[in-house]
């Protein structure tokens, strides 16, 4: 990891480096993705089956595209009772957390005969993309399906790529059953996103697509946005740790590596007020990397996007954390709750030395689908809010409209919208008002 003292030039260079990882910068893949999306839109299942054979090595048919109940049961049996128990307990924590996010319709009536309100309605059908192969994460299944179910979505359609044998990762299927997926299809990549967005003979069209994926999936979601809603265009994972001299360097090093192992493009940043801690963390990281299984990925991630930043004060550390706006932010200081009050931009905030990032990835309850690449400045974690829509409710009696009609007419005419003004005026013309 590179160790530098914070300066304006250092910060600008770091931000520039991190932003290069954004999916918005992978234009070389856009043409290929658009071709896949357009072909699926035009040819439906025929294109989906062809791309699945080309990219996944499995020949789908209308009879084999949907995962059967027998396949799901086989998956649950194969992972064993212990793992089923773990997934079930994690799911309960996630469900309980998201139940507190529920929103309800409200109405406000006044004595003048007016009623204003907001009607909250869950989306009808949502598509959840789940990666396959080496990137199969049952935890992501829980994090994407459960908020939708808590929101009241009528039907959750899950898509995930099959292996060459036509099977789906058993942990993924087990998590889907526990979370409550209604239908599961053996389709992955950009072709799965397009199928969800436009519908095919076998895969129904959805209202929104959520879930992580590779660059082809991310760009496909970008391409279909507008035809359907999406959660976000997610970039590589990232973690930032704010630590002072009280932090345990071994814990900090382990937490930084917990995200660096995801991807060669993942970033791991320590911002500390202690040069001694910086040196200790660097040594601990070297020791961990030498023995961890994903050594090559870890090393490339750290070489390219691993930083230890030395701050002159905790205030400066907080400022740089807000500027970077990391997906995951850990605060390991003498008073983490006080520091937390000054954080404006972060996807998820972990406080104290026993609140390591994997706690949030798997078990605590808050969603691990988080804004990346600085978008925590204006985006939030995936939540129940992502699976509802709101309609404004307006009711005025004649008695309520009468005292404000002239204001509306004046406003409309000031914008040269005479039909708007007329719409109000006709309601009073019989009275000669």
TrEMBL record:
Amino acids binding Zn(2+): 259, 262, 361, 420
GO molecular function, one term: NAD binding
Amino-acid positions noted as binding NAD(+) in the UniProt annotation, renumbered to this chain: 129, 191, 214
Pfam families according to UniProt: Histidinol_dh (PF00815)
Residues annotated to bind substrate: 237, 259, 262, 328, 361, 415, 420
Keyword Magnesium: no
Keywords, sorted A to Z: Amino-acid biosynthesis, Histidine biosynthesis, Metal-binding, NAD, Oxidoreductase, Zinc
Cofactor: Zn(2+)
Cofactor binding annotation: Binds 1 zinc ion per subunit.
Function: Catalyzes the sequential NAD-dependent oxidations of L-histidinol to L-histidinaldehyde and then to L-histidine.
PANTHER family linked: HISTIDINE BIOSYNTHESIS TRIFUNCTIONAL PROTEIN, HISTIDINOL DEHYDROGENASE HDH
Family to which the UniProt record says this protein belongs: Belongs to the histidinol dehydrogenase family.
Protein name: Histidinol dehydrogenase
Organism: Candidatus Onthocola gallistercoris
């Amino acid at each position: 990891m590179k160790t530098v003292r914070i300066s304006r030039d250092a910060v600008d260079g770091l931000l520039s480096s991190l932003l290069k990882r954004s999916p918005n910068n992978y234009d070389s893949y856009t043409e290929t993705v658009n071709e896949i999306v357009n072909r699926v839109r035009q040819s439906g299942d025929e294109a989906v089956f062809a791309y699945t054979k080309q990219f996944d090595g499995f020949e789908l048919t209308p009879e084999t595209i949907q995962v059967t109940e027998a396949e799901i049961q086989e998956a649950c049996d194969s992972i064993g009772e212990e793992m089923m128990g773990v997934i079930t307990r994690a799911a309960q924590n996630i469900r309980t957390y998201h139940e507190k996010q529920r929103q309800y319709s409200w109405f406000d009536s006044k004595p003048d005969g007016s009623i204003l309100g907001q009607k909250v309605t869950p989306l009808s059908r949502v598509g959840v993309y789940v990666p396959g192969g080496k990137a199969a994460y049952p935890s992501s299944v829980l994090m994407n399906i459960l908020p939708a179910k808590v929101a009241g979505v009528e039907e959750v359609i899950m898509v995930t790529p099959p292996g060459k044998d036509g099977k789906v990762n058993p942990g993924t299927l087990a998590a889907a059953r526990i979370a409550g997926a209604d239908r599961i299809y053996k389709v992955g990549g950009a072709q799965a996103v397009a199928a969800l967005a436009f519908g095919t003979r076998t895969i129904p069209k959805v209202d929104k697509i959520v879930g992580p994926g590779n660059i082809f999936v991310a760009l496909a979601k970008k391409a279909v946005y507008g035809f359907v809603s999406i959660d976000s265009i997610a970039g590589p994972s990232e973690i930032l740790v704010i630590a002072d001299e009280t932090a345990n360097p071994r814990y900090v090093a382990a937490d930084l590596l917990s995200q660096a192992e995801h991807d060669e493009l993942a970033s791991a940043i320590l911002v500390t007020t202690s040069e001694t801690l910086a040196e200790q963390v660097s040594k601990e990281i070297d020791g961990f990397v030498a023995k961890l299984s994903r050594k090559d990925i870890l090393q490339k991630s750290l070489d390219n996007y691993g930083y230890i930043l030395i701050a002159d004060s905790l205030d400066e550390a907080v400022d740089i954390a807000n500027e970077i706006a990391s997906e995951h932010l850990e605060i390991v200081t003498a008073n983490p709750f006080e520091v937390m009050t000054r954080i404006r931009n972060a996807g998820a905030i972990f406080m104290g030395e026993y609140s390591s990032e994997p706690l949030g990835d798997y078990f605590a309850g808050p969603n691990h689908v988080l804004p990346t690449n600085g978008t925590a400045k204006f985006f939030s974690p995936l939540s129940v809010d992502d699976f509802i829509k709101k309609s404004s409710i307006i009711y005025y009696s004649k008695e309520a409209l009468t005292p404000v009609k002239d204001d509306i007419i004046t406003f409309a005419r000031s914008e040269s919208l005479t039909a708007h003004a007329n719409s109000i005026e006709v309601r009073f013309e019989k009275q000669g008002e």
